[in-house]
Design brief:
CATH class: Mainly Alpha
Number of strands: 0
Largest sheet: none
Strand content: under 5%
CATH architecture: Alpha Horseshoe
CATH superfamily: Tetratricopeptide repeat domain
């Protein structure tokens, strides 16, 4: 299912490059390198506003106790 989401949201950008960004963001998140993960998700969002990337960014922000920013990410994801 994630592949279908990525394909529909990222027209004009190679799927494999977008997949690499998602993989890197997830790796950084799981390694508890939340600031780096946020930077990665920001790159994804800049290329194509993605609900998935907004949620992951929100989770990373939440881990850093930046709850207001996390809520804004979740709200953006809900309105897309």
């Amino acid at each position: 299912m994630q592949e279908r989401i990525l394909q529909s949201e990222n027209e004009g950008f190679r799927d494999e490059e977008m997949d690499q960004l998602y993989d890197e963001g997830l790796f950084l998140y799981l390694a508890e390198r939340y600031e780096d993960a946020i930077k990665c998700y920001d790159q994804i969002i800049e290329i194509s506003p993605s609900k998935v990337a907004l949620v992951w960014k929100g989770l990373a922000l939440q881990r850093l106790l930046r709850k207001d920013e996390a809520v804004r990410c979740y709200e953006k994801a809900l309105t897309r």
